Amino acid sequence: AVLTPLRSDDYLPLLELLACSLKHSNPGVKLLVATVQGDLSAEIIEKAKAISNVEVFFWDEFRIENTIRHRFALNWVKLRAWEMEEYDAILMIDTDTLVMRDLSSLWSIPAHFATVLDQDKTTSSFNALGRQQGGVVLLRPCKDVASHMMDLVKRNTTLQFAHAHAEQSFLDWYFRFERWTLPVKYNAIGHLLKRRGERTTGGTKPAIVHYSGAKPMTLSPEAHHEQAIATNCFQ
Question: Which of 61, 110, 181, 218 is the most exposed, fewest CB within 10 Å of its CB?
């Protein structure tokens, strides 16, 4: 499954563009949209459900408050993805991404957890370990792992990484001994692509493009380079 969490009405335009990009690059692949009851208005839920390749479902809330960056509290619900044992593998991607190429080869990777290393941070304070970029995560669901992670992070405030990227740093720590590193093309940073003539730092064409500007962003390909390369989504 390809899955994206959605916790704000403001992100609907980004969801629509993500769904469009997935539809054109991976025909027949459904985009699961996970939210929490009360996060989205009824109007936005209906609009999301009306997208042809989207299926909306609801997670129970799981949050750890962050007094430094309040938005990080919303991200912990991503651990619920490991509870979804009806799927052999899940590619969990942020809503501010675009899928540009076929993803089918990812499903055969024999990994429990795989991410792309971060490319656009200049200091190691972003993450204390591998500096993984949490916008694209390949995972193998397991309810026992989900329960273990949530129990650990609730009981040990050190593992909440409140000064950094919260769940992103926790996952980096939790899977530190078996984390696989995906090629950078699966989480290509938009503004870096623009500088390099639409090529990643590895010299390849991007498979997934990640917005890296202020969010939420309006749909304007003239203003946002990432959207300008979303094939067939503005016709």
Answer: 110
Using CA atoms, how far residue 57 sits from 4, 103, 179, in Å, is 11, 23, 28
Distance CA 30, CA 99 (A): 12
What's the angle, vertex CA 131, arms to CA 119 and CA 78, rounded to 5?
105
Q: Is the peptide bond before 216 cis (omega within 30 degrees of 0)?
A: yes
pLDDT tens for each residue of 211-230: 866 676 778 887 777 777 77
Amino acid in the structure at residue 216: P
Reported as type and span, the H/E element at residue 22 is helix 12-25
**DSSP of 116-146:** EEP-S--SGGG-SSS-EEEEEEEE---HHHH
Distance from C-alpha of 197 to C-alpha of 210, rounded to nearest angstrom: 16
E strands present in the chain: 2-5, 31-36, 54-59, 90-93, 97-99, 113-117, 132-139, 180-181, 188-189, 208-210
Taking a C-beta distance cutoff of 8 angstroms, is the pair 134, 168 a contact? yes
